[in-house]
Design brief:
2 domains; 10% strand; homodimer; 3-stranded antiparallel β-sheet; mainly alpha; DNA-binding
Chain lengths: 178, 178
DNA sequence: TTCGGCATGTAACTCGTTACATGATTTT
DNA sequence: AAAATCATGTAACGAGTTACATGCCGAA
């Protein structure tokens, strides 16, 4: 399936970028729906070069620190566009360890179950708060459709809706338990 | 982390069960938040036996068909309970290929993007319809708290809320695009 | 001069999927 | 008699994590 391939290709397509900076991108907005460690990114970049989808240029920063600045090729752009246009079946439902634990919770007593939900509620609220803080930096100006910022905005909103719905689920469970 | 280990342990804890039937469970309610193929389940069962967490008894069905019926041990029950009670950090945000594609969609034109969202909307609605159908089989009788059925009901409701929230997100995106 | 961040890589391992492989039983 | 389903396994591969490994640069 090679999804990481296209995640990287998408980033390199926006602007020439180094492996290090790709890793950083995977820890910002992007982290709300895709991510990877540098140990996965560097080998994948090498593979993409071999496939002729990207090129790199070695940049010397300061005295001797080598950076590799990757740029997308025409072949890479075509490959990315083809992937963006493809119509696929739905991904399988994402796995959820907390739900798995609650699914088997009948062997716990009520108080123990409630404690689990309450702990999860705190953590989810914290995450939602964080996402809202990021969202507020957009300062009520919804970016133009078809701009890189619109992508950021869109998926951030998706992440907020997802957390809200998870919190709603927890609250419903707690109401039944109390 | 060995999550599959506990998913299996949780099922075996409910009732003695064969590997084949565990595989089937992973394609019902459970599939809304955990699943595995038989090729992963059989080796894991062997491992759990080695660890003394489950036992099995060979059953001959019909003339000569061998089944292995697995039962949880005391050690297994303790291990499961410990796992159920543990307080963990939030899982990383689940990966989402569709959101990844839309994140990079600025290189497509508006009509192409809208087509992508509309296709996704149809598929998500279909899935929601399916989940609602399953839910209606509960026939308005919410199962008792602390029963195996309550677990089923709870996670099914979670799955429905999740799909609804995804659909809400798609609609918001479409409204902005139109 | 030391510490945190910049920058790139590899090795070993776990987790999960697809495909291969076999045979028994039930249903059409 | 054939097809679907029951039932259990292994092999090869791909994806992802943790740990190992190295060296540069700027700020305190």
């Amino acid at each position: 399936m090679r999804t990481l391939k296209y995640a990287i290709l998408g980033l390199v397509n926006r602007n020439p970028i180094t492996g290090y900076d790709i890793t950083k991108e995977f820890n910002k907005e992007l982290a709300n729906f895709w991510y990877a460690k540098h140990s996965q990114i560097y080998p994948e970049l090498k593979k993409l070069v071999d496939e002729g989808l990207i090129n790199f240029e070695v940049i010397i920063a300061g005295e001797s620190l080598e950076k590799k600045l990757y740029t997308i090729t025409e072949k890479g752009k075509e490959s990315l566009k083809k992937w963006l246009l493809q119509v696929e079946d739905l991904d399988p439902t994402p796995k959820d360890k907390f739900k798995l634990r609650m699914y088997f919770s009948e062997i716990l007593n009520k108080e123990e179950i409630i404690l689990q939900f309450e702990d999860q509620l705190i953590k989810r609220n914290k995450k939602l708060q964080f996402l809202n803080d990021v969202m507020n930096e957009y300062d009520r100006t919804i970016p133009d459709v078809i701009s890189p910022e619109f992508g950021d905005y869109m998926v951030l909103e998706g992440a907020i809706l997802r957390e809200q719905s998870y919190i709603e689920w927890i609250n419903r469970c707690l109401n039944r338990l109390k």
